[in-house]
UniProtKB/TrEMBL annotation:
One of its GO terms (molecular function) is zinc ion binding. Residues 1049-1205 form the Helicase C-terminal domain. PROSITE patterns: HELICASE_ATP_BIND_1, HELICASE_CTER, ZF_SWIM. Residues 40-82 form the SWIM-type domain. Keywords: ATP-binding, Helicase, Hydrolase, Metal-binding, Nucleotide-binding, Zinc, Zinc-finger. This is Helicase. The keyword Zinc applies. Pfam families: Helicase_C, SNF2-rel_dom, SNF2_assoc. PANTHER family: DNA EXCISION REPAIR PROTEIN ERCC-6-RELATED, SNF2/RAD54 FAMILY MEMBER. It comes from Bifidobacterium avesanii. SMART domains: DEXDc, HELICc. Residues 742-921 form the Helicase ATP-binding domain.
Length: 1215
């Protein structure tokens, strides 16, 4: 059927195009053929001239949306237009003659929706005020003369209000197929109508359609028109229709769902319908009744208990028992969440009903009725006419077998109303007991309504008692079972395993209990064959025993030999679980002691033994001499460890105590098996005590250990008095440093005095040497027993140290090992020759030499023993492979110290080299240090692993490093104001820089890691060229133009200093750049001094003194020559002409002016070329300094050029 037909010019998509005069579009609404309730909208456009198809669409499921695809509705629309074009609105008219079909159609739909909204609003108002819908329409007619919405609802129709419509299901079972149909009820006038299409009703409800079922019922289909039960049934109907639609879609059958009057149900769907109908009655058409009219049956919301009776019976000559259920189970409906059953009265109830009706004489007596019924099957009873049923008392009786109910037709609320009872009276749906689910097949047999029941002969009673009876009891079915039958039920076999521990090992005795009777299986008891036994269960229990025990003789218990540790472990690991799963397990106290209740708590204990620390591994309830073996078992990942007395100690997969002990052993540089040897105690050097102090609980430290550590961590100020000659000279923090040095000496340790540059490290060490000389004189007048001290420093500082001794400790005899080779040799030979004569006058107190001379004179120092040795600017030995480092470490000195403001310049390996000089072994081998500390910290400085290893390294070395910053201890020191002056390269300088940078970038990009390492020197040379161009192109190209941005900035800063009466230090790595600066200063008439690597050592001291005392405003200094040992407090301005890779070296240079004695604020200017490698170097310095900050506690160092990786360099070249 087609309606709302229209045609219009143009395309069907509604867009205005040039084709509007060429195309013609027809539209219409088509009702589906297979489902009349489905209406689809279709349109087709085609060419007026060629009559060829252009486009189209349809709302039916079969249309997929592809262009040029046509469904049957679109085809029917075209055929209909060809036959009857005059039926299409707009045919033959111009485009402007009428409204657009699309627009008109849309407006009509809006009007329809508005009508539905008004209807719903009216119903809500009526429901809120309690006014009946019919009365409201009547009042409307009385006032206005016509009913409301007369165009849609004829006057005679009976309108209903909200909640006045319900749905009544009728369930049917035909040909073993469940189905349901529905009647729609007008609760206002008790009228009802058959629902002809379930799917159409659901669609009407979804769309809010107004439908008429007859003169007594018409309403707008919205859920609020239904009562509560009706809405629940509607939800059920929607789910059913949706399920069938999904099934069709899954099978790729794109057709509408068409459910007419009868809805075929699965058992789960029927169970859902029964669930929402609990407490009500519904109509049932049941095929076994052989009746086509429905009967009312109740739906109970409770489980119906089932009882089985068992009475003596005889079948022919065979005697036995008859089993009969007290209820007749006609059907069981299995639901996903809940199952139901259709039940009727049992045979006893039927017989009881028969005896209570009819006459008392002749064949109509109750006894006759009972005999007649007992001889008939349920089907035969169902075939009886109503008159015969009434005579037998099966009609009109209330509540057969106690099932209750009055029958008749139910009222609007579903309750029974009306007199009389149908054939379904006494039958009802009720919940199926969940416990009886496994018995479903046998229950329908026992409860089939047969009055004779099911016969079990006496010969089969043991089989019944062994099989069916326990099943019925487990299901909770109440049964009247005679005691003789119950006695035939075998008792379940209950295995019992008895475990014991003897001298031979672990034994297992197996017994099986049958109720109060006990049977010995292993060892077997001769003659114990009486009574019923479950031999299969006994064999299964014995098989479990054999899996874990040896059974050599059935007359003896099973056993595991005491030496078979693996078998015992297997028993505890898995055997006990298997035994518990098979039966009850009983153990003796001796067996219980075989397994320790819990893993032992392991811990380390430390005892001070002279200058060494004894470290022991302890574990609760484990003898000390067996803890090592316990650790060995744990390292081999064994689940249990067996002690010497046979006790098994469980070992977890991860034991915190043992893991901590192993980790500490590795931190100490010990092998994993160190505690497994001897008595489990290892000796470590005293300097390891401070790391152990953090790893061991206080309760496990002896008094000597606590005192040893406490003396170093908390130094008593009264213990060491500052020499009187220096009492008024040393600042408080310097006095603390002196006491720290003295403490380390007394404990036999070395250390790093790492104070920031300018805090007076030399005077602190001089005070220590002076105090030890004075203490030696008090102990022995000739000072015997202590040799001289040795100080090794850069060549430029040899005479500085001599001057410091002369100033602060003139009483000490100081010799500088300098000058020609012969002179140095004679001095050392004389020291060697006079070392044992006890004379003080022939022997100096202190020797001072340089690193280079020590390397050359290393052989001359053999045989000399020094009391104390200090290496100043200790970073000189940062590379442990150099000859200088090896020469320094070869010196025989009782106490070794390092003085440096930058213990770490480039990488952590430098710290290892210094400690390898101070206390060899503290940080282990270089390889171990590299793998354990350097790589994790360098690669993951900000991650968890890097931080953890840095914390461990700090705990290990922290007590041996004393570092103070000026900001912490010199509150009276003027401020250091740091500034970055950015200059921009222009013209030829910019072009030269860009060309070199691009060349280096290409070089790095096309080389892999192997090539990078091989070409490192060449790459570093290219980097140097880039930095030189940033300073001045003339450093590379002699013919370059005299235009340097940096030179101009430096000149401006110097002019400002001169005009303000300040002095400036100008540092540069490139002496050639210093020459260009000097030439510019000379041209401007500005006086200056210069120090480079070529300046003799004594000349440097002279220039420093002159600069601090005269009016020369500028001091030009090469970075490497002047960043140590110079005191230039006369200057208050520091200019770094070019940034250096190592920020620590720059800081040292700055500290030539910013140090003790400075009275003015120091302004530091760093000249940096913008958008060049210099600007990116500053960022790289900040990142690299994080490593030193984590270990030393401040960012005192940054990675140098040697520490740069390929990625670092690429980062420097890529802005």
């Amino acid at each position: 059927m087609m309606f709302d037909l229209a045609c219009e010019p143009g395309g069907g998509d509604g867009a205005n195009t040039d084709d509007d005069d060429r195309l013609l579009t027809i539209r219409g609404r088509i009702r589906g053929t297979s489902s009349p309730g489905s209406v689809y909208r279709a349109w087709v456009s085609f060419d007026r001239n060629s009559e060829e198809f252009d486009d189209g669409a349809c709302t039916c499921p079969a249309y997929t949306g592809y262009r040029y695809e046509v469904c049957k509705h679109m085809a029917a629309l075209v055929f209909h237009f060809a036959d009857h074009p005059d039926l299409f609105r707009g045919f033959g008219q111009s485009h402007a003659a009428g409204s657009s079909v699309d627009l008109l159609d849309y407006m009509e739909r809006l009007d329809e929706l508005e009508s539905r909204r008004r209807e719903a609003k009216r119903n809500a108002l009526l429901r809120a005020t309690g006014v009946d819908a019919g009365h409201a329409d009547a009042a409307h007619t009385a006032v206005f003369g016509s009913p409301r919405s007369a165009a849609r609802v004829p006057a005679p129709l009976a309108m209903v209000g909200p909640g006045q419509v319900s749905l009544e299901p009728t369930v049917a079972l035909r040909n073993r197929v469940w189905s349901v149909s529905f009647r729609i009820l007008n609760l206002a006038n008790a009228s009802s109508y058959v629902l002809k299409s379930v799917s159409r009703f659901v669609l009407d409800m979804d769309r809010g359609e107004f439908e008429q079922y007859g003169q007594k019922l018409a309403f707008t289909h919205t859920p609020d028109m239904l009562d509560g039960y009706g809405r629940a049934v509607l939800r059920f109907m929607r789910r059913a229709v949706e399920a069938r639609r999904n099934a069709l879609m899954a099978s790729h059958a794109y057709m509408p769902v068409n459910v007419e009057r009868d809805l075929i149900l699965s058992e789960d769907e029927l169970a859902q319908l029964l669930r929402i109908s609990e407490g009500r009655r519904l109509d049932l058409i049941y095929e076994r009744w052989m009746r086509s009219t429905p009967e009312r049956v109740a739906v109970d919301g409770v489980e119906r208990p089932i009882r089985i009776t068992m009475r003596r019976a005889k079948q022919g000559a065979t005697e036995g028992y008859a089993l009969r259920g007290d209820v007749c189970i006609d059907e069981i409906i299995e639901g996903a969440e809940r199952s139901y059953m259709l039940v009727g009265p049992g045979p006893a109830a039927v017989a009881g009903a028969a005896t209570g009706s009819g006459s008392s004489d002749g064949e109509d007596s109750p006894a006759a009725a009972a005999r007649a019924l007992s001889a008939m099957s349920v089907r035969e009873i169902a075939d009886l006419p109503d008159s015969e049923l009434s005579r037998l008392g099966l009609l009109g009786m209330g509540g057969m077998g106690g099932m209750g109910g009055t029958g008749g037709i139910s009222g609007p609320d579903g309750s029974a109303s009306g007199a009389g009872a149908g054939y379904g009276e006494g039958r009802r749906f009720c919940r199926f007991p969940e416990d009886c689910e496994p018995l479903r097949p046998i229950l329908t047999t026992l409860c089939d309504g047969d009055p004779d029941g099911r016969f079990v002969s006496d010969d089969d009673l043991p089989l019944f008692a062994r099989t069916l009876l326990p099943l019925l009891e487990r299901a909770g079915v109440d049964g009247d079972v005679p005691e003789p039958v119950r006695e035939l039920k075998p008792q379940p076999a209950e295995p019992e395993f008895y475990l014991d521990r003897t001298e031979d090992g672990v034994t297992c005795t197996l017994k099986v209990r049958y109720g109060a009777r006990e049977v010995g299986v292993l060892p077997s008891v001769p003659g114990d064959r009486g009574g019923l036994r479950d031999l299969a269960a006994e064999r299964a229990a014995l098989a479990v025993v054999r899996r874990y025990f040896a059974v050599s003789d059935s007359r003896r218990p099973a056993v595991i030999d005491r030496d078979e540790t693996y078998a015992v472990v297997r028993l505890f690991d898995e055997g006990l679980k298997a035994l518990h799963a098979a039966g009850a397990v009983f153990t003796t106290p001796a067996f219980d002691r075989l397994l320790a209740p819990r893993p032992p708590k392991a811990r380390l204990a430390v005892v001070m033994n002279g200058g060494l620390v004894d470290v022991s591994l302890l574990a609760d309830e484990v003898p000390p001499d067996e803890v090592g073996a316990l650790l060995a078992s744990y390292r081999r990942r064994q689940r249990f460890h067996r002690l010497k007395d046979g006790t098994l100690v469980p070992l977890g997969e991860h034991d915190a105590g043992l893991d901590a002990a192993l980790a500490t052993a590795r931190d100490l540089g010990l092998a994993d098996d160190a505690f497994e040897k001897g008595d489990g105690t290892v000796e470590v050097p005293g300097f390891q005590a401070f790391m152990l102090d953090a790893a061991v609980d206080d309760a496990d430290k002896d008094d000597g250990f606590r005192a040893f550590v406490g003396d170093v961590k908390v130094i008593d100020p009264s213990r060491y008095a500052v020499p009187k000659s220096l009492a008024g000279v040393l600042r408080p923090y310097q006095a603390d440093g002196f006491r720290w040095l003295m403490t380390l000496c007394d404990k036999g340790f070395g250390g790093i005095l790492a104070d920031e540059m300018g805090l007076g490290k030399s005077v602190q060490f001089i005070a220590m040497l002076l105090a030890r000389r004075e203490a030696s004189e008090r102990e022995a007048a000739d000072g015997a027993g202590r040799g001289p001290s040795l100080i090794v420093c850069p060549a430029s500082l040899v005479y500085n140290w001599a001057a410091e001794f002369a100033k602060f400790a003139p009483s000490l005899a100081v010799e500088t090992v300098a000058g020609p080779k012969a002179q140095r040799k004679a001095l050392l030979d004389g020291l060697r020759d006079g070392s044992g004569d006890g004379g003080r006058a022939s022997r100096p107190d202190v020797l001072i030499t340089s690193y280079d001379l020590l390397r050359l004179d290393a052989a001359e120092y053999r045989g000399l023993a020094f009391d104390a040795m200090a290496i100043d600017e200790a970073q000189v030995i940062k590379n442990h492979t150099t000859k200088v480092a090896r020469a320094v470490k070869s010196i025989d000195a009782r106490h070794r110290f390092a003085l440096t403001g930058t213990p770490v310049e480039n990488r952590l390996a430098e710290l290892w080299s210094i400690f390898d000089f101070l206390m060899p072994g503290l940080l282990g081998t270089f390889k171990r240090f590299h793998e354990r500390y350097e790589m994790p910290i360098a690669n993951d400085a900000y991650g968890d692993e890097g931080r953890a290893q840095a914390a461990k390294l700090k705990a290990l070395t922290g007590v041996f490093i004393l570092r103070r910053l000026k900001s912490q201890v010199l509150t009276d020191l003027p401020d250091k104001l740091e500034n970055v002056v950015t200059v921009r390269l222009e013209g030829e300088q910019r072009r030269l820089y860009a060309a070199h940078e691009q060349r280096l970038r290409l070089l790095l990009t096309h080389e892999d890691a192997r090539d990078f390492n091989a070409e490192r020197i060449r790459i570093l040379a290219e980097l140097t060229k880039l930095r030189q161009i940033c300073c001045d192109p003339r450093l590379l190209y002699a013919n370059a133009k005299d235009r340097s941005a940096k030179l101009a900035a430096i000149e401006e800063l110097v002019d400002t200093c001169v005009s303000e009466g300040k002095k400036a230090l100008v540092f540069s790595q490139f002496t050639s750049f210093l020459e260009l600066i000097a030439a510019r200063l000379k041209a401007r008439g500005t006086a200056y001094y210069t120090i480079t690597g070529e300046t003799p050592k004594k000349r440097r001291v002279e220039l420093v003194d002159r600069f601090n005392g005269d009016d020369v405003p500028v001091f030009l200094i090469s970075l490497k020559a002047g960043n140590t040992g110079l005191n230039l407090t006369g200057a208050s301005v520091v200019i770094h002409a070019d940034p250096w890779w190592n920020a620590a070296a720059q800081d040292q240079a700055t500290d030539r002016a910013h140090r003790i004695g400075q009275t003015r604020d120091v302004n530091v200017y760093q000249i940096v070329a913008k958008d060049t490698i210099e600007e990116r170097m500053l960022k790289l310095q900040a990142a690299k300094s994080e490593v030193a900050r984590q270990v030393l506690g401040d960012g005192s160092a940054a990675g140098g050029v040697a520490a740069l990786t390929r990625d670092d360099l690429l980062g420097l070249l890529n802005a």
